[in-house]
DNA sequence: TCAATCTATATGACGCGTCATTCAATGACA
DNA sequence: TGTCATTGAATGACGCGTCATATAGATTGA
């Protein structure tokens, strides 16, 4: 039985979906067009840039994003292929890896971040 | 240059992403487990159920969801294969189609909707 | 020190959404 | 009426995320 409360919930949810997709889509398209990387790539890049003191990243990354461990691994693959990031082995635990921005990665990140923040401001008000 | 305002925007965005994925994921898993349909399938079913007076649906559907026209077409494929919906040709414009719930579709929708609303309430507060 | 177990990451198969394209039906207009 | 542009929908190639698994390294405890 469809209560008014149900209707409200559904409307609220649709509105969240719309603004989520609108925002994510706008950022994704802009980054793709201007920097040739997708939103997820940028977000990993952003996380790596944030924690500029080392650590066994990969693991930590997984905890800061809704992406799957395997998705993170593939995003990093692409970033590495694009020469934006490099995987470094971890001396104290050789299963772990930590990530470093390359020069190119650092450069791209700082331009892309400006765009990213601008679009967030525009879309989140 | 990373302003405090930028940090706030990024935090806000991550929080939106997290709650979006948490909610969507929870609903998707529940519907998948109990009714064997995904979230997008349910949402199309829900839209069709909502507009129980006919019309040339497919088109209208595309306007009520952030999904692509082609995504809608494929979701409807699956719903049709599952016997939950049927495509009816439109007399006045033979390019268009409108959709109808089958009996099974109506039944599944009304159970699934309860679950859906409950999870929305739980997740959106 | 040797199993058994656990943990960090990678990988392959798979499903789904997107883009570009196609096809048929319509509409516009001369 | 004949052409040309437009519109509703379907389709195929493709990229990406997910799940289940694999692999190598760590840890525990007898």
Observed structural traits:
homodimer, 125 residues, mainly alpha, two-stranded antiparallel sheet, 2 strands, 69% helix, 8% strand, globular, DNA-binding
The portion of residues assigned to helices of chain A is 55-70%
Q: Terminal Cα separation of chain A, in Å? A: 36 Å
| Amount of beta strand of chain A | 5-15%
From the spread of the alpha carbons, the general shape of chain A counts as globular
Structural class call of chain A reads mainly alpha
- Enumerate how many helices of chain A there are, as a single number: 5
- The strand line-up of the biggest sheet of chain A is 1-2
Query: Averaging pLDDT over every residue of chain A, what do you get?
Result: 93
Oligomer: homodimer
Q: Indicate the radius of gyration of chain A in whole angstroms.
A: 18 Å
Task: Note the main sheet of chain A.
Answer: 2 strands, antiparallel
Largest interface: A-B, 23 and 22 residues
H and E order of chain A: HHHHEEH
Q: What are the segments of chain A in which pLDDT stays under 50 over at least 5 consecutive residues?
A: none
DSSP, total strands of chain A: 2
